[in-house]
Amino acid sequence: MVQSLVESTMRGQVFACTKNSEEECFNRLLFGANKVYGPSAMKVKKGDFLFLLNLSNDVVYGIFKATSDAKMNIEPKAWGGRYPYQVKVEPVGRIIPLKNAKKLLKKLNIKRTTRMKRATTTRLLELYRPEGSTRDKWLHSLFGIREEKELKVRLESPRSWSLLSEAKRIERKVDEDIPMLEATTLWDFPKQSYGKHPKGDNKYPGVTPALIIWNLVWRYTEPVDLVLDPMCGSGTTIDVCKEEGRRVIGYDIAPIRPDIIQNDSREIPLSNDSVDLIFIDSPYGDNIRYNDHPDCIGKVSSETETFYDELEKVMKECHRVLKEGKVLGWLIGDQWVKKRFTPVGFKVYERLCKYFETLDIVCVTRRGQSSHTGLWYNRARRFNFFLRGFKYLLIMKKVSPDVLAKNKDARKIDWTYYKRKELGAS
Ligand SMILES: C[S@@+](CC[C@H](N)C(=O)[O-])C[C@H]1O[C@@H](n2cnc3c(N)ncnc32)[C@H](O)[C@@H]1O
């Protein structure tokens, strides 16, 4: 009974340190992560089993328990502020360092972005089991020690995992892999959603791939920040933000869920400078029939200037409600219809530049289009046109008018030119 209780609630997570940060982890009984591992670190709940991988000497220390849910800056001064996604821990008995840690974790399919479920956590815990103790006794004792709340740090001599019973490969699907932040300006998400719970409705016309929003949320906001989606369709932004602990407001001209507020985004009922991030996946023209609402901008053709004039009203409102220094992500795609190309992305970008500074432009692969069929691929080749393969994610920042004007001046860059082989040299 006790064992099944322990096992059913078991979750595990690996944190990392180096020879420079290890001592502070032990002294403060605190583990921390930077932005790269923040998304997985912030999923830790009180009671989870934790392990500390020292990247410098390749050992993984165990066993620890989280004594708090993960939070931002529990101890803001820890590690000079470099690892703000933090969790308080306590050792469970003596701390044992397992050698060859990177190889061991690889063998068990454990990454720092893996939220380990029962099976993997048990497998890793077992490597810390004292010789002579049975698996069942060991799990019982783990539970008991937790009750006693042993808080002291007592370090044991290192143990080589290769001497212990062989760590068997386990089924990956039992663990939840937390996504990693995109590092380049080319994003390709094979599925509309990710994780355990669906985000938005993948049947909604023009639904946004949830990882686009996830990436913006993690790059440009912190927990509890306020995110706004003025045209939130099936609510993908709401679902992503709720899971990531951000506050969120979603409007749409024709809401399809009770948590979406009916509103025309050309007039946003929020005060000036009140929002930390805006994401908007607007209509790209009149190619999709979203609803029958007369004020739906998706009824206006992107071949007309009216379309951009109406979107500009939305841009102005976004600019007004966004805090200075904060970010707007606008997803938009071009149009090719009946032998005419319209650079919708460039035209929307041009309008945005009147108000915002450009942070970057990301190219997002278009998948799941109704035209992505063999028939359409064949037609595109035969009749010499291209199917739309990407959308633009325009990442814009609200800056003061002075900065916006100044950013137009060219700068003098001291480039580092790398030495190349001389031309013609063999
Ligand atoms: C591409 S969809 C958004 C998809 C959404 N991000 C999702 O993942 O489901 C564009 C949305 O803009 C909404 N829309 C069009 N005109 C609007 C307006 N004037 N005000 C607010 N929403 C509008 C449409 O109803 C539609 O849901």
Describe what this molecule looks like in 3D:
With 426 residues, this protein is an alpha/beta fold. The chain folds into two domains: 2-176, ph1033 like fold (Roll); 186-406, Rossmann fold, CATH 3.40.50. The protein has helices at 2-8, 22-28, 38-41, 101-107, 118-126, 135-148, 210-220, 236-243, 305-321, 344-352, 374-382, 401-406; strands spanning 12-17, 30-33, 49-54, 59-66, 71-72, 85-98, 114-115, 176-177, 186-187, 226-229, 247-252, 261-262, 275-281, 322-332, 335-337, 340-342, 357-365, 390-397. An eight-stranded mixed sheet has the order 9-17-18-14-13-10-11-12. The longest helix is centred in the C-terminal third of the chain and has 17 residues, at 305-321. The termini are far apart. Bound molecules: S-adenosylmethionine. S-adenosylmethionine binds at residues 200, 204, 206-208, 230-234, 236, 251-254, 264-266, 281-283, 290-291, 295-298.
The distinct bound ligands, ions and cofactors come out as: S-adenosylmethionine
CATH architecture of the largest domain: 3-Layer(aba) Sandwich
Count of folded domains: 2
Instruction: Determine the number of helices (DSSP H or I, runs of at least 4 residues).
Output: 12
Q: What pattern of helices and strands is seen along the backbone?
A: HEHEHEEEEHEHHEEHEHEEEHEEEHEHEH
So what's the oligomer here? single chain
The CATH superfamily of the largest domain is identified as Vaccinia Virus protein VP39
Uncertain runs: 1-8, 145-151, 169-173
Major beta sheet summary: 8 strands, mixed
- Strand content bin: 15-25%
Main β-sheet, spatial strand arrangement = 9-17-18-14-13-10-11-12
User: What is the CATH T-level topology of the largest domain?
Assistant: Rossmann fold
Mean of residue pLDDT?
89
Helix content: 25-40%
Radius of gyration: 26 Å
Number of strands: 18
Determine and state the CATH class of the largest domain.
Alpha Beta
Tell me the span between the first and last alpha carbons.
73 Å
Structural class: alpha/beta
Query: Looking at the structure, what is the overall shape?
Result: elongated
